Protein 1
Amino acid sequence: ISLANIHRILATECPVELFDLKYPDSDLVADDVKGLRWQNGTNGPFIHLGSVGPETCPLQNKDFVDALSPWLDNGIGEIESAGLLRGGSRIFAQIRVKQMQDAVIRTLKDGRQDTVRPFITLVNGHGKMKMCGGRTSIRDVCDNTVSASLKEMKADGLMFSATHRASKLKEGKLAEATADMAGKMVNINKFWLAQHEQFLVEMDKLRFLEAVPVKPFTTASKIVDTLNYYAETVDKGAKAPDILEKGYKRSKIAEELERLFVSGKGCQGQTWYDLHCAMTEYLSWTPGNALKGDRLGDAQARRMEDLWLGARNAKLNAAMDTAFLMAKSQN
């Protein structure tokens, strides 16, 4: 996808702007809060993006797209996709780095290779959320998001961190700071290499999961107990109940996991990798069956946001960590 198309998709000719808010039942203008809005297209409607502090300086969509130029100009990668989240209050771009190779986990029974594709994903939120980025990994045979690790780009100085507050800019030089955004992305090679190292670690974990069959906990239990324990641990984010002694009514997620373990896309109902893939399919594609604390929503954009930054992201990370620990205990 070209930068010209990304400019069109994100309607970069339309500014994100502040506007005055009035107190309820009054003509008085609030001095401690501003509204934030964006017009989706030259003749499109204004979209209210929320309320922000009066010192907020929104990073424009054009500046975000301009910051992608070094990835293309230096031949580092290509823009795979870009789009809007939350009606335009957040924007994203996914970059395919040419030297970040796909990882082959196994060969499926039908002869296809089970591969995982790595991406660098950048997201900017208008208002309170700063620009963030990191790696996202997609499983080819099902388009499941296997892992996602996006963080605010300021701690290590590897990427430009776009402030949204004028008071944090020396002498208020907002225009100068945003214009120099691409110039500050001088260490992108170091950034993607660090992300790639973590991707390789994750892929080694997935290959280990593929090497370990799912087994019952004891001779008196069944494989379904193992599946239920895994589902409960990921769902609750804490120690799961002792299902072997107490027993309990299976949750919706446990029932779904049992089905996806054997019939999910690319799942073969045998190894811990199959079980982990069943969980990622549930998290990636099951609307309306959100885990505890998750936000409901059928829209793909909402699911993507949750997988990258929201409640499902925490459970996605817990899914891999839990599967790895439980597989080690059964290996």
Protein 2
Amino acid sequence: TTVPVDATGASVVTPAGFDGALPVYALTRRPLKASPERFNPSGVVKTTGGDSVYYLFNDEDELTVDAEGGLWYTAFEGTETIRMQDETGEYTEQVNPRMEPGSYAAVLLSHWRGRERSKSAEPPESRALPALSTITLAQAREQAQALLDDLGVADADCDWVYAGDRAALQALSDRRNAEIESGRLLNCAPWTQALTDTDEGYALHYIGRVNGVPAQSAFLEAFLFINGEGVRFVSLRAPFARGEALAEETLISAADALSRAVAAAKNSWLSDLTAPLQNAQRIELIYAVREQATLSPAWRIVAKDDAKGGARLEVVVAADGTVLDAPWM
């Protein structure tokens, strides 16, 4: 990837060899090819249907597959008692399955890493070391790719990994417990289980990538936690299959895209975002999902809103200058 500096002061990120135009692809919706035995061989004790199919396994693990290309798998061990507060302020106790430490960590990390959803500050950097005692990063990547292949998910690219050794998992658990104790995180039970080497694993984040260009999470996003026992947590959204190229589209310049975004912000009900956008950090070439029908090239403008604690601010501008996605839309 080349990162030239635009005259606006923002870094412009494009793949090597980009000449100003990219193909537009047809998209079709398709269900994931998910078999419960692929995730857990202990056997299914309960299944519920509808738009989402839910599987409960003999060992308490859970799998949900919806009709819109979503899939969630979580490994549990034991139970935990949670104090639930209702709208009147009254508390009741509820006994729930308890997630494994790796699943707890994966949920926290997926919230930070899912930047397009949360629009939060930048997530932790990739952390491939230290080496773990029960699994290597190469083995984790191999298992993740095999699962995505079995599900029929193409165009997936691992853009971030996090080595969850005992120290890292403990730090994440301590942070979560502190938020529970302070009252910032409600209706949750603190994690008190002692960690072992078998809990250690890798968190991996996948995005769609086509022609060397990253795609919006609306096209594909996956988050997995894999340890020596296998895949222990999956959060996947892949509602589309990419079809044939329909045409080639020439994009306006990155500087013009930024101007369109700034003008749109200025004329919106969130005009206070004009200044942060004028000082954007990065303008990156992406593929965007348009009208649930095509995967089209676009510019994603990334800025920080210092008035909101440095929260991530994103605006997506189409090849023709149309603003596709913005906080005011």
Protein 3
Amino acid sequence: ANPEWLDLALQARGYGLVGMFTLLSCLFVWHHLETASVRSLVGLGVATVLGTWTLSSFLLFAAPLWLVLAAVVRTRRVLVGGAVSAAAIGLVYLPIAGQVWTESSTFADRWGRSYTGAGSVAETFSTYLFDSGFWLFDHPSTVVVLAAVASLVPVALIAPVSAGARKLVMVSYATLAAFFAVNLVMGTAVMRTTSFAVVPVAFSGAVLMGGLGVLARTRLDRTGRYMTAVVAASAVALMTWQVVQAPRAWFYRPVEDWASASRYVERTFPDGTGLAATYDWLGIVRGSHLDAGFPMDGDQKSSLGLTSGLSVLFDSAPSGNRRPGANP
């Protein structure tokens, strides 16, 4: 129900599919931890291969997931499943292996490194997991956000839940630790490519809450069950209210028809007209539709520094409002 995640998932860019394959991976891991079935490993293999085929950086999640699962259960069938999945990923990427290597080895030189610290990890969860209404105060710090994410670990260790649920949390968080560690070392991740990492946290939380709900129903007396039901109902009501309220302030960006916009600029304005934007769209416009006759003008992310000459501003701020930090 997070608006940013919903916006990203609805775009025809594969992130919704990656989120689904992440959810399926978590589901199959949990099922294997509870039942040790071969069928769950087959499902995990299919999910990790398709997830990596959809988004190549998903490999940074899929690989440690198999390794951590193998370390936890210590069975040969998990090692075989991981090896088969790795071979399948290599096979589907074989036709474009050279291109993948070129892009990955030159990305940092061309685009720089921006995913470089704990603040980047916290921003992933703040953007795609926690709605702004989740917090009782504005702008939570990096420590607060990461502490909220990690809070499931002590709950899993202390709460009387099933061994499968407890191991699921450990596997999920160990996998995420490896995933973010590699991303921080590389530093080249675009934040949206890490969005699917919120799924294991949400899924683990749901499994833990479900286990605690079963415990409350079977072990607590009548008063305890009533209190648990009231707390659960209140939490559901609060989250539902936040979900209902969120679309009122949600700005959905229209279809990005850059070809038509660029043709309009060419027809209407002379060569030498500068281009600026309130968001970072100019790379798309200049890279695909407009030539060097229309130079970039000013800071494309905030529309600061426009020259005194003729300029065109691509303004995609919600409802005509200027982006925070931009000149009035």
Protein 4
Amino acid sequence: KGCTGAFRDGVGYTRKNYLNIQKKGDDIMIETILAKCDERYEKPECGECLDCTYMEYCPGDCEKCLDYIHNPSHAPKGTPERKYDCVHMADVYTCKYSFRYTSEIIYALKRCRDLWDVDKLKVLSFGCGPCTDLFAIDYLHASGDLRYENIEYRGVDYSEDVWKYIHRDIKQFENQSRKIDFFYKDACELITTIERGNWIPNLIIFQYVFSDMQKHTSSQSINYFMNTFAKYYNRKISKNTYIILNDINLGKEYGGGRQFFDQLCGKLEGTIVRKGRFCNDNAKSEYYPRGYTYGENSDGEFSDNRNFFDIENWSKYSPFDTCASAQMLIKKR
């Protein structure tokens, strides 16, 4: 394991490409999907709160519900444990977090230099949710950084009922050169089918997957997933394939799953590895005011953490204007 020219250094911030796309009048996926989410959220006839999983503890505010899920200590005493399970909440989640999560993947993809000129991009996305990784790919294709002719995207997520409207809208972007499919099953179960199959991606993305597994999945199932994925990677994945692991910059003891990056990587053969983190402008730790440091052999803090989009018109969702994740990038030799 080590660093070579497989990764581009010095990737910084620019909003120039975004402004150029706007001037050309091109539709980019993230703006179309968020506009549809906003339209659904604004409809007064939503009845989701009447059947809320939080029952009598429902705050009647999707952003507060999200906070309760992300930070259970913020919820009233007696509030039941909960996953993402509400289409209305999904729309708010997408409007609030997509600019941050999409930008984090844009930075990662800009470092994966051997992907820039791939003719056919085949993406396997674990924990795809609202597909912020696909938003990033679409953005970089529109800006000319990724120059693929065809793309095949396969998203894995266990929550069909939560993301069904967003995925329906994303499927509208399909055409002869863009194929999008979703597989609604727990990744720890589906990995067996993936390992036995013949479809081979050249880009694999873990987008906020391991922090979710840490909260909701047994250690036995996580170990099975990693071992089966490693067998798939070591036997079938071709050289020059990239893996992007992007997640909250917290260890397991703080409700994150960053240690799983290194555990998974340690099972993979023939890898070139880079890892680092964004400065977290919202960090609350007295000892780590810019966010937690990221282990041995890390690149440390990335040079920039700003997102690539204009969020001025989305202020009612309180979106983040900066990135804050930890990342590991892996290339197969």
